[in-house]
Amino acid sequence: MHDIRLIRENPEQFDSGLASRGMTAMAAGIVELDDKRKAAVSALQAALEQRNSLSKEIGQAKAAKDEGRAAQLMADVARLKEDIPQLETVERDVQKELDELLSSIPNTPGADTPSGKDENDNVERRRFGSPRNLAVAKEHFELGEALGMMDFETAAKLSGSRFVLLRGEMARLERALGQFMLDLHVTEHGYTEVNPPILVREEVMYGTTQLPKFRDDQFQVSNGMWLVPTAEVPLTNMVRESVLGEEELPLRVTALTPCFRLEAGAAGRDTRGMLRQHQFMKCELVSITTPEESANEHERMLGCAEKVLQRLDIPYRVVTLCTGDMGFAATKTYDIEVWLPGQATYREISSCSVCGDFQARRMNARYRPKNSKGPRFVHTLNGSGIAVGRALIAVLENYQNEDGSITIPSVLVPYMGGKSRIGG
Questions:
Q1: Cα 36–1–238 angle (5° rounding)?
Q2: For a tag site, which of 203, 249, 360, 372 has the least CB within 10 Å?
Q3: Are residues 50 and 133 in the same domain?
Q4: What percent of the chain shows pLDDT beyond 70?
């Protein structure tokens, strides 16, 4: 959510930020609507104050036995009582219109976010590792199906398209990846492990901007609650409607959860295999920090996510997303793209974003600075640390052998009961 005060004070800067996202100027319209809201609030307050004042005068008139004056005052109060509900409706409707407008506008990019229209304008930052020379590079679903451990047909019978059923050692390998990620982030990176609910209320989805903008991408259950598309939702909302002490920050939490997405906007994309599923496992990283430290925390979070792929020894690259490719709530985003030999290209496996106070305003999440009287909004950050399903894909394709077997990365061998190979 944007700060209406900042829009009033810096309308050109606000519109410039929107323009970098390919949007038209909106500051003037927002200010005009806010003026309308203020006028409605003033009219309502004036009517309430007048009613209270007249009510006092009625008592004074009756005490003075001026019945004519009292009757006139009572008639004036009666008219005000008829007007006040209408004024309340106007004030409520204008406030709702302003809230809905502000809720539909994405965060403005940071000054160091590169400008651009789409993914072609993203800026590569660095690379790790070199792709292996494979005589024949198969895709993950070819490898998994040949091993009899990746079953899309049975999953379709159970649940429809964009689901997978993993068997035996493949299921264990996915579990091993998730456990390895959690252990790394908790023991070496200082995150606190959380096991959050994966069914949340509407206001929680709103707090991290999944609603209302991305309603069509979410799964809602019959009682009105929502399945989380990412553990970012419950983890970030842990601080909603609260005021933290500055000494509690930074707050760093991680969770390994199932995630659920309708993928309504991805029809026809990545229909083969596990790249784009309705249900998948992901290890999420969330940081809550002060405005002064959020940029440093962003770099730190990126390094934590990168460490997963470095330990797995899988080639990847880091790119800074341009303004036209960045997510709704982010002010700056790094994507980690892993090398997939079967596709001979890099594909996203993690996004690490800093959101400023954009989510905090929706959640009313604040902290009390040590040397300041009033509370301030926290800054929120989130990142995949990393997507487990896509990590499984990367392991299968990067560690495939000519006989169709899969070598287990050394860091995962303890999680596989000492087993160093699948198949073959």
A1: 135
A2: 372
A3: no
A4: 98
Convert the pLDDT of each residue in 1-14 to its tens digit.
899 999 999 999 99
| Concatenated DSSP letters of 131-197 | ----SS---HHHHHHHTT-EEHHHHHHHH-SS--EE-HHHHHHHHHHHHHHHHHHHHTT-PEE----
d(CA 60, CA 339): 83
Q: What is the pTM of this model?
A: 0.91
| 130 and 94 assigned to the same domain | no
Answer yes or no: is 288 within a domain: yes
Dihedral (Cα; 199, 204, 208, 210), 10-degree rounding: 60
User: Could you give the CA distance from residue 251 to residue 236 in angstroms, rounded to a whole number?
Assistant: 10
Sheet holding 376-377, edge to edge: 242-245, 365-368, 376-377
Helix (H, G, I), strand (E, B) or coil at 235: helix
Q: Where among 69, 103, 137 does a domain terminate? A: 103
Are residues 166 and 245 both part of a single domain? yes
E strands, 341-404, in order: 345-354, 365-368, 376-377, 379-387
* Distance, CA of 11 to CA of 24 (rounded, Å): 13
DSSP secondary structure string, 269-320?
SS-STTSS-SEEEEEEEEEEE-GGGHHHHHHHHHHHHHHHHHHHT--EEEEE
Q: How far apart are CA 415 and CA 424, in angstroms?
A: 20
Cβ 390 vs Cβ 307: under 8 Å? no
Query: Looking at the predicted structure, is the pLDDT value of residue 204 above 90?
Result: yes
- Per-residue pLDDT band at 271 (split at 50, 70, 90): confident
Per the domain annotation, does 266 fall within a domain? Answer: yes
Residue 282 tokens, joined:
């992901």
Q: Based on the domain organization, do 385 and 347 belong to the same domain?
A: yes
Nearby residues of 35 by Cβ (< 8 Å), 6 or more positions away = none
Under a CB-based contact definition with an 8 Å cutoff, are residues 176 and 419 in contact?
no
Residue that terminates a domain, selected from 70, 103, 136: 103
What's the angle, vertex CA 207, arms to CA 206 and CA 213, rounded to 5? 35
CA nearest to 286, candidates 150, 362, 165, 192: 192
